[in-house]
Amino acid sequence: MAETGQRQAQIGVTGLAVMGSNIARNLARHGHTVALHNRSIAKTDALLAEHGSEGDFIRTETTAEFVAALERPRRVLMMVKAGDATDAVIDELADLMEPGDIIIDGGNSLYTDTIRREAAMAARGLNFIGAGISGGEEGALNGPSIMPGGPAESYESVGPLLESISAHVDGVPCCTHIGPDGSGHFVKMVHNGIEYADMQLIGEAYDLMRGVLGMDVAEIADVFREWNTGDLDSYLVEITADVLSAVDATTGRPLVDVIVDEAGQKGTGRWTVKSALDLGVPTTGIAEAVFARALSSAPDQRREARGLHSGADRSAAPADRAAFIEDIRQALYASKVIAYSQGFDQIAAGSEEHGWNVHPGDLATIWRGGCIIRAKFLDRIRDAYAENPELPALLLAPYFRDAVETAVGSWRRVVMTATATGVPVPAFASSLSYYDALRADRLPAALTQGLRDYFGAHTYRRIDKPGSFHTLWSGDRSEVEA
Ligand code: NBP
């Protein structure tokens, strides 16, 4: 640790709350000299007091001191609250920086803000990188998954630094240049959306074991532990077993039973769904997960509705417990394939819309470690895109197609049983409907078009000849070419 002097830092970190301080420590532990800055000095001093011996830090108090402590081109990693705070810090930094310097926003910024900020910084000759960072506080310290978007030239300067602190899987860093401007924050947003879907599916699997099979929480924890040794091997399944194993010290009950059942959200899931709507991509798994959290967080309505008649048929509960647990596992896997397939579709659509040229295989590679959705499954996704970079949908890759076709009987039994017994499975059910709709020969969209033509003369196309047509519904009902 040192006061500002002639020594200069390879990188500066501003915003030293949980994420920023852990990333600064991670950078220092990898041999980089790190200038430290926070709006209020207390966090800087706390970091130095507790962890100053972990590496080479330069303490700075003001933004001017901070910028002056950096070697050129200056590299600043911002880890501040997303939104107005991020704009305020960028403005302050930009006034003190010079053309060629690089600002990295490692916060959870909305990608459209990143597009705007990147353009504004480029106009001032500054390089702006919007880097999605996943892994929470533990990942920030020990190796996160990093998704940087921005000018390719600036990645040459910051890429090696970021790659050095990222997680590594099979020697490959979980960090790569995603594409221009908002692409990094966009893929991080969809990553978080997939995380929502993953967690919702896990929740539904747990609820089925409780509600249909009447298993106790410890038994369900064992099932998740067992699942984590197979195809479902993932961080989220692993920590599900841990959370379900926790016992409340005060009451002696399973911790999950004393936690209020209202799920919070910070916004990235909602952003993903809004973007899916704008792009016209049916990201139903993520949408169901966001809506399920919203429903859980409507306690007044839920209280009033609690006594509604269920019409549930308890006799529909399967007698063979082991077989139904296997059905749930298959349904979880198949629904997870759908959620990822939809998420990758959304990324492809966003990439197309903004001209980002995002490589889906790269994402599967850098999501294998460090991030919350890390899973064995990601290896399969990476292989699928390596085999065919032009895959029309992840679901259609031979491996996933086989997996889902194998699972579909189980999936139907699970959704039927859940429906009969009154256990809500919005993500399982809508994923199955998505699958059925996608593989259908014909969809009722033909009727929708007929109705639209009837009341709004919106026209329709025919299966047997080109052109657009309209039926004179209120006249003689003959067809005219539109
Ligand atoms: P917070 O999101 O809670 O932000 C706190 C930091 O922002 C503090 O350093 C605070 O300074 C600074 N700050 C604020 Br608030 N307003 C400011 C302003 N107007 N000017 C300058 N600094 C300001 O911290 P976090 O949870 O460590 O997250 C940092 C970023 O990383 C966020 O964008 C977050 O969304 C993202 N992220 C978080 C996680 C996670 O697991 N927590 C994971 C991935 C990404 P102060 O100390 O002076 O108040």
Molecular structure report:
The chain has 482 residues and is of the alpha/beta class. The strands form 3 sheets. It has an 8-stranded mixed sheet with strand order 1-4-3-2-5-6-7-8, with helices on both faces. A 3-stranded antiparallel sheet has the order 11-12-13. It has a two-stranded antiparallel ribbon with strand order 9-10. Helix 8 packs across helix 13. The longest helix is centred in the C-terminal third of the chain and has 34 residues. The radius of gyration is 26 Å and the shape is globular. The model has no long low-confidence stretch (mean pLDDT 96). Nicotinamide 8-bromo-adenine dinucleotide phosphate binds next to helix 1, helix 4 and helix 6.
Blueprint (SSEs and pairs):
Elements: E1 2-3, E2 11-14, H1 18-29, E3 34-37, H2 41-51, E4 57-59, H3 63-68, E5 75-78, H4 84-96, E6 102-105, H5 111-123, E7 127-134, H6 136-142, E8 145-149, H7 152-165, E9 168-169, E10 172-173, H8 183-211, H9 217-227, H10 235-245, H11 255-258, H12 268-279, H13 284-296, H14 299-305, H15 321-354, H16 360-366, H17 377-387, H18 398-421, H19 426-439, H20 445-456, E11 460-461, E12 468-471, E13 479-481
Parallel strand pairs: 1-4, 2-3, 2-5, 3-4, 5-6, 6-7
Antiparallel strand pairs: 7-8, 9-10, 11-12, 12-13
Helix pairs in contact: 1-6, 5-8, 8-12, 8-13, 8-15, 9-10, 12-13, 13-19, 15-18, 15-19, 16-17
This protein binds nicotinamide 8-bromo-adenine dinucleotide phosphate.
Nicotinamide 8-bromo-adenine dinucleotide phosphate binds near residues 15, 39, 40, 80 and 81.
